[in-house]
Design brief:
two-stranded antiparallel ribbon; single chain; alpha/beta; about 475 residues; binds S-adenosylmethionine
Length: about 475
């Protein structure tokens, strides 16, 4: 039997089934242990330091106890601390991005995804470079600066060279005042050599959802194709880091397996990355299974309700306080609104999950990966965020300034966010307001900018940010950053 070892590079040792089961037993046995729960909550709370704020985070065992706890007052406390952590390290900024689907050709047999190769009636499409350009222009015209590219796994139709060509094309398009400044990549697990190529192409985060950490279920849910190899998939982030990618994004697809098992696995994966590479995941996504072409979520037994989903989000926030958290348009406006208070730091907006969807007037469904619940335009999402007290941020400065991996984390820990990320958010919001916003959004935005500028502690930084925003308003000068 494999022995649990967070430092091991073997999937079955760092995501260790026996350790997860022991964790779940421990959590169940302690779910009413108020004294222990209070200690764990106290440990999770942000602590002030001379230079800023620090958070201890939680181990997978501690976080699992909180997730198991059903005492309403304690859950309220978790939510309150999750919000405190979010505000301490990410402020009231919410980073915005959009997915860009390049190709839905796929050789895998994932039973929850409509791109599975047995699906013979879904239209298969792969963008040409001209079509990528057209999609990027459409996305730039909406105001996007950050994309996550998505593709099925198909060595013939979507080889790494194709993905690299697309990245090159995306970065080359400069339409009016627009440009895409960060391309995150969500493609299947690959080799160290290919990760190195992605790094050289200038990608931001490499995102790969584990789907499920439960090996037995994983093998059934991925019955055929290269993705069937659980170990290769689970060890992908180590290969990505070996290939030089500092920022990696984890996630499980909630609804496939029992959520408590997935949660423990997810936090163990984060602990493993920290133990081996000295830096945890840059982001964690929390997708839930959705209806899609030939996929009915009711065919899966492990769907989670909105309250459980909120609790999972808050517990992740407490366990890994410095990791960004992403919620997509799989979720409704109401769910997104609730989760934004519990630690989410990035949202997608105006998304289309079909190949070539952004250049169509009507939302196409024929090549779609899943139903989009939040179908609002980017402008509506931006206005809604501001109406709820969040600053929509189009900032991409960190990785362009070399602040990746542990350098980004130390920025968080040193409390420099208010002098760096905050002005960057305001300057990129001003770009959005000038170039793409509706009159109502623009009015709300400039009011918010005026108020938020006052919160920048360093007088010099505040002055420069104010000048740059004036320059954005009165000229075509763009892309200022700290
Ligand atoms: N082919 C790559 C891979 O295997 O990782 C790229 C991923 S795919 C384009 C993006 C993600 O969508 C998947 O990792 C999966 O978690 C999610 N997904 C697939 N089917 C879904 C569904 N029916 N509802 C919600 N999310 C789904």
């Amino acid at each position: 039997m494999a022995i649990y070892d967070p430092k091991s590079l073997k999937a079955e040792e760092f995501i260790n089934d026996a350790e997860i089961r022991a964790t779940l037993e421990y959590a169940e046995a302690n779910k009413n242990n108020v004294e222990l729960i209070d200690q764990i909550l106290e440990k999770a709370r942000p602590q002030k330091t001379a230079t800023g704020c620090v958070c201890a985070g939680l181990t997978h065992r501690e976080a699992s106890v909180l997730l198991a706890c059903e005492i309403p007052k304690k859950i309220e406390k978790m939510y309150q601390i999750a919000e405190e952590i979010k505000l301490a390290f990410y402020g009231n900024r919410i980073v915005i991005f959009a997915p860009l689907y390049l190709s839905n050709y796929c050789v895998n047999g994932c039973v929850y995804c409509p791109y599975h190769h047995i699906n013979k009636h879904i239209v298969r499409k792969k963008l040409t470079q001209e079509e990528v350009k057209a999609e990027v222009i459409a996305l730039q015209d909406m105001g996007h600066k950050r994309l996550a590219i998505e593709a099925g796994e198909d060595p013939v139709n979507n080889p790494i060279e194709y993905i690299l060509d697309c990245i090159k094309t995306i970065y080359s398009v400069h339409h009016k005042n627009g440009d895409i400044r960060r391309v995150n990549v969500n493609i299947a697990a690959t080799t160290v050599e290919n990760y190195r190529k992605l790094k050289e192409a200038g990608i931001g985060t490499y995102i790969l959802f584990q789907e499920t950490y439960h090996k037995e279920s994983y093998l059934k849910l991925h019955p055929t194709g290269p993705k069937h190899d659980y170990d290769y998939h689970t060890e992908a982030m180590d290969r990505a880091m070996e290939g030089g990618i500092d920022d990696v994004g984890l996630g499980v697809l909630f609804g496939l397996e029992l959520y408590k098992y997935e949660f423990a696995g997810l936090i163990m994966h984060a602990e493993h990355l920290e133990a081996v590479h000295g830096v945890g995941p840059h982001t964690i996504s929390v997708p839930r299974l959705k209806r899609a072409d030939d996929i009915d979520p009711d065919d899966f037994d492990n769907g989670i309700d909105d309250d459980t989903f909120a609790k999972i989000t808050a517990c992740i926030r407490l366990a890994v306080p410095y990791t960004g958290m992403i919620i997509s348009t799989r979720e409704t406006e109401a769910t997104r609104q609730k989760l934004l208070r519990l630690g989410i730091s990035q949202v997608s907006g105006g998304s289309r999950t079909s190949v070539g969807g952004y250049t169509e007037v009507e939302r196409p469904h024929d090549t779609e990966q899943f139903d989009v619940s939040d179908q609002r335009t980017l402008d509506e999402v931006v206005k809604w965020l501001m109406d709820n007290g969040h600053i929509p941020s189009f900032c991409t400065a960190c990785y362009r300034e070399g602040r990746t991996g542990d350098r980004f984390m130390s920025l968080c820990k040193n409390g420099q966010i208010l002098n760096c990320c905050h002005p960057n958010a305001l300057m990129t919001l001003a770009e959005y307001l000038e170039d793409y916003a509706s009159p109502e959004t623009k009015a709300t935005g400039y009011k918010m900018i005026a108020e938020e500028l006052e919160k920048i502690p360093n007088e010099k930084v505040r002055g420069i940010a104010r000048e740059n925003i004036e320059a954005i308003r009165s000229s075509n000068r763009r892309d200022f950053r700290f």
